Amino acid sequence: MKAYLLENPLTHNVRDFARQIWLAGLGAFARAQDEGGKFFETLVQEGQAVDARMKKTAGEKIEPGEVEIMKGRVEEIREKATGAWSKLEEVFQGRVARALHRLGVPSRDDIQRLFQQIDLLSQNVRELNQAAEAEAKARKVRAIRSPEPAAAKIAEPVG
Hints:
With about 160 residues, this protein is mainly alpha-helical. The chain has helices at about 1-5, 10-60, 65-100, 110-145. It folds into three domains: about 5-50; about 65-105; about 105-145. It is about 85% helix and about 0% strand.
């Protein structure tokens, strides 16, 4: 069966046609690469011409007073957009904070309180160390000033 398909003239025609389609695609790709840069430059030039015409037309139709009105409207829209963005940001931050709280993640305030407690405990430890050092020095000074008599050893009879 395989040999029949390979030798069948219809199979040869389909294979030849597929090869031609492939080659035509390669040719189109090569031409697009060659002419693509030129075509792009032409499009840029046409775009610049259209842009210049639009600016000229817009400049002719807009009066100086209208420019100030448009600037005011743009500023209004910008303020509204900024306000809406701020509200959206607050809502998002609130939701994230609640989700983190439900997961048991400490808040910034919780961490700040822990830092304050650590600072307080560190200060207490320093004070206790200083007091212990002072007490040790005082004992040493007392021991040097008034040595205690050595205790006499009493031997018990062996027997």
